[in-house]
């Protein structure tokens, strides 16, 4: 029981540290008119029990989709993944959504799923996934289901953009 309590306390602390980091984030590039200050909502349930497989899938997705982004970009990508789970259209679990056909380009290379990730980028991605699963979210993205990097031109791009965070445009 002591080990579980310590693990839970660490997760709660990580969640709050992530929240503080995101709260201090402000987008300052002028050349992208959609960029705006990122607002986050306080987590509803900080001490939520999370399936480690689902946490791993979310962390992998954040790592490969937004590994080079700052913490706000990582949280935003995690929020989109969780939003997709809520719709049940792509699947009812995070891993289902992440590995749904033609959704995330990195999953086309299935061997990546078996690579042991490490380093600061992985640790940051894992912490962001944990914070997202504990309720941390970007307010502007409550209903967003799509995003793409600003250097690609997907065929579905005719949707109304909500915001830009880092190199990603969210719809």
Notable traits:
171 residues, mainly alpha, two-stranded antiparallel sheet, globular, 5 strands, three-stranded antiparallel sheet, single chain, disordered N terminus
Structure description:
This protein has 171 residues and is mainly α. It has 5 helices and 5 strands, in the order αβααααββββ. Strands 3-5-4 form a 3-stranded antiparallel β-sheet, with helices on one face. A two-stranded antiparallel ribbon has the order 1-2. Strand 4 and strand 5 form a beta hairpin. Helix 3 (71-87) crosses helix 5. The longest helix has 22 residues, at 2-23. The N and C termini lie far apart (43 Å).
Short description, anyone?
A hairpin with a 2-residue loop joins strand 4 (163-165) and strand 5 (168-170). Strands 3-5-4 form a 3-stranded antiparallel β-sheet, with helices on one face. Strands 1-2 form a two-stranded antiparallel ribbon. The chain has 171 residues and is mostly helical.
What do the pLDDT scores average to? Answer: 77
Helix content: 40-55%
Using DSSP, what is the number of strands? 5
Contiguous low-pLDDT stretches (5 residues minimum) are 1-10, 19-34
Q: Give the biggest beta sheet.
A: 3 strands, antiparallel
Helix count from the secondary structure assignment? 5
Structural class: mainly alpha
Radius of gyration computed on alpha carbons? 16 Å
Strands across the major sheet, in which order? 3-5-4
Shape from CA axes?
Answer: globular
> Approximately how much beta-strand content do the residues carry?
5-15%
Helices and strands, in order, run as HEHHHHEEEE
Distance between the termini: 43 Å
